[in-house]
Specification:
Length: 724
């Protein structure tokens, strides 16, 4: 049966929602409030006594960083709509202004909670001899060190700015952190208002000399106030406050841009100068300084947040010290897959034996890098094709592609310029590839290319063999250390043909036909999901086993949610692991009573996207239909991006994805939160002396199934429907 035939057969009976009291918008959770709920869970990890202290500090920093990005992107967009009088309703029935009211209330409470958590962690750090000081707590020796440090490491990069008719208020960039000062001349008592922007290129905390037992730090704002006389000689301070600016960071690009790279460079400059969406100001700021800042930045009172505590909690990541391993997660070294070791690192030989699935970060991402590096240096490789959404600054994969192009191989790189906050880095990488002789394309103006695909074409005897890599994560060696993702390597001709058609679509708009083991957005990925959900519903109506197990970052798309509701009503048992946003209400009688949802927030960022359909059999895995994907179930992914949904057909790969990865995620209790129909999340009840199952620890301690194709872990938990 072709893919098109499957779709026609599967959608012959459309999914319909049950008629009940939950018809209408209230059957969905609000997307923005659901995201805030996720960031509350991140913050809760900063309070979790089972988490090492410095890792708790890291979670606090992540929570603050997440919230900043939320305001500069999501809230900025809603605020613009509300200010324009837009009354378009969200899926849950709220207009932009109504959403802004709810967001502001929840976000303000989250900001206050972050400060409370910081106060508690600060005390715990003190107890562990990691101390954040005020300037008046420095010893004489530390004062001398601070003077030398200030003059040699800080003073040369500062630009103290007087504010008067001859010196207008300067531009403060997004996430810019500054001190506002009230000064008075020592000579004639004349007042002066001034600004001291703190460059983002210098650390937020000055590390003082250590005796190896105590680590002492001074915040940069304290250091600057301590040495104002060097910056404004002849003046004394009469008052000061700190402030931090968040600006609209969403990019707008002309649809008909003739030179996409140049248009993005212009757009990046516009982002830097976007409207202010939030001004964070230290509490008890002198009233005249507050008026000056708000007037010059053109912010309303509703956009000002007073912080009674530390501004810029995101910078606390600087205090996560490698020198204190006793306060960090136990060290972990990702494994090299056994099969790759068996073939002495020869990736092509390992892949030829059979499909190879890797589970990152438990299995090293260096294997992906090795695949491209080996291809670049192999004289039998004639062509390499690669997508890039995000990658590291000094990417070894980009270096390998440049080397391959310089050696005369045909290299094609699809570089996505619209990868938010990585646009500038991707422009640099594209120019580097072009200089080496690679063909660089940018995909579609209207769609982001989020698919993660590599192709290596190798001459073997008298034929060409296509090796493919499909991933759920970015080609980014740094984030691959902390994101859980899947990588599939294969030389099956069907996947090679599918991948080649996708690249032809990206580079030449040739819409792919007759895909064999692959569905892609925006063409048929969503319809494939809906068809499979509908098929499970039909099995349930016919009295056959019907189950769905899925894992992703976010679930927002209303058509998919409604299909899941319809399947639940038909009797399909549905277990979902949704790390972040979830707009589906689980466990509602007459709507979703057969759907269970959990979220995992722990040591690693759950990032892989998986969906398994019982296929009329339920268990075992060998009968199920198993897919992994680059796409979350959101409107942007399914309708406005190029994404992949890859069907796993190899028995070992299916067993690993469904019988090990999905099973362990569903069995996890240590890092899990259970979502109820009213939108609240609760941790499973765990006794103080219990050792709850932790899926991250399980995968760190157990070899995967991918090694030599045998079952790896003896205690893989049994795959079941998620518990209440």
């Amino acid at each position: 049966m072709t893919h098109a035939d499957f779709l026609k057969a599967a959608i012959k009976t459309p999914i319909t929602l049950p008629k009940n009291d939950w018809d209408g918008p209230k059957r969905y959770f609000n997307r923005e409030l659901s995201w805030l709920a996720f960031n509350w869970r991140v913050l809760e990890e900063a309070e979790n006594p089972r988490v090492p202290l410095l890792e708790r500090l890291r979670f606090l920093s992540i929570s603050a960083t997440n919230l900043d990005e939320f305001f500069t992107v999501r809230v900025a967009g809603l605020q613009a709509l509300a200010n324009a009088g837009n009354t378009t309703l969200s899926n849950d029935g709220l207009n932009p202004a109504q959403q802004m009211v709810l967001i502001s209330k929840d976000a303000h409470e989250l900001l206050q909670a972050q400060q409370r958590v910081w106060i508690d962690l600060h005390k715990m750090l003190d107890a562990e001899n990691i101390t954040l000081l005020a300037a008046d707590n420095l010893t004489e020796a530390e004062q001398e060190f601070s003077r030398n440090f200030f003059m040699t490491q800080v003073f040369p990069v500062l630009s103290p700015l007087a504010i008067d008719p001859a010196h207008p208020f300067p531009f403060i960039p997004n996430e810019g952190f500054s001190l506002a000062l009230k000064l008075e001349s020592l000579h004639d008592g004349r007042p002066l208002q001034a600004l001291l922007p703190i460059p983002q290129q210098i650390d937020r905390f000055m590390r003082l000399p250590s005796d190896g037992k105590v680590e002492r730090f001074l915040p940069m704002e304290e250091l600057l106030l301590l040495h104002l006389e060097a910056l404004f000689p002849g003046y004394k301070a009469k008052g000061s406050c700190a402030f931090r600016v968040l600006r609209n960071s969403d990019l707008e690009v002309e649809d008909e841009a003739e030179d996409l790279v140049r248009e993005f460079e212009v757009a990046l400059k516009r982002r830097r100068r976007g409207d202010v969406v939030r001004l964070k100001l230290s509490t008890n700021a002198p009233s005249d300084l507050r008026r000056l800042i708000t007037r010059e930045l053109k912010v309303e009172d509703a956009e000002v947040v007073e912080i009674d505590g530390m501004l810029g909690l995101t910078d606390l990541s600087e205090l996560v010290l490698d020198s204190r391993p006793d306060l960090l997660w136990p060290s972990f070294t990702p494994r090299l897959p056994e099969r790759v070791r068996d073939f002495e690192g020869d990736m092509f030989a390992a892949i030829r034996q059979k499909d190879l699935l890797l589970h990152h970060p438990y299995e090293t991402f260096d294997t992906v890098v090795r695949f491209i590096e080996q291809a670049a240096r192999d004289p039998d490789v004639v062509a390499i094709k690669q997508t890039f959404y995000r990658t590291s600054r000094d990417s070894p994969i980009v270096s390998a592609l440049c080397e391959a192009a310089e050696m005369g191989k045909s290299v094609t790189a699809l570089v996505e310029l619209k990868a938010r906050f990585d646009e500038a880095a991707n422009i640099r990488q594209s120019r580097r590839l072009e200089r080496a002789g690679a063909h660089v394309v940018y995909g579609f103006i209207n769609y982001k290319t989020h698919a993660k695909i590599s192709i290596v074409v190798r001459r073997e005897g008298d034929k060409l063999v296509t090796y493919t890599h499909f991933g759920t994560g970015n080609y980014h060696p740094i984030t691959a250390r902390i994101y859980t993702d899947l990588s599939l390597f294969s030389c099956r001709s069907a996947l090679g043909r599918d991948a080649t058609k996708v690249f032809n679509y990206l580079s030449g708009y040739a819409q792919p036909e007759a895909l064999e083991n692959l569905a892609i957005a925006p063409l048929n990925l969503k319809s494939t999901l809906l068809a499979n959900i509908n098929r499970e519903a039909e099995f349930a109506r016919n009295g056959e086993p019907a189950e769905i197990w899925a894992k992703m970052n976010s679930l927002v798309e209303p058509d998919v949610i409604d299909a899941l509701y319809g399947a639940s009503d038909a009797g399909v048992k549905i277990s979902l692991v949704i790390r972040g946003i979830c707009c589906l209400r689980p466990g509602i009688k007459g709507l979703s009573e057969n759907i269970r949802v959990k979220s995992i927030v722990g040591r690693f960022l759950e990032h892989s996207r998986i969906v398994c359909f019982g296929n009329g059999y339920g268990l075992p895995a060998k009968k199920a239909k198993v897919y992994f994907s680059s796409a979350d179930w959101m409107g942007r992914n399914l309708n406005r991006r190029v994404e992949t949904l890859v069907q796993a057909t190899n028995a070992t790969v299916k067993a690993q994805i469904m019988g090990q990865i999905m099973a362990a995620n569903l069995a996890d209790e240590a890092q899990s939160w259970i979502l109820s129909g009213d939108g609240t999340f609760e941790r499973p009840k765990i006794a103080d002396d219990a050792q709850p199952f932790n899926c991250h620890r399980f995968f760190m301690e157990n070899p995967s199934l991918s090694g030599r194709g045998k079952a790896g872990a003896a205690d893989v938990p049994e795959l079941t429907h998620t518990k209440e």
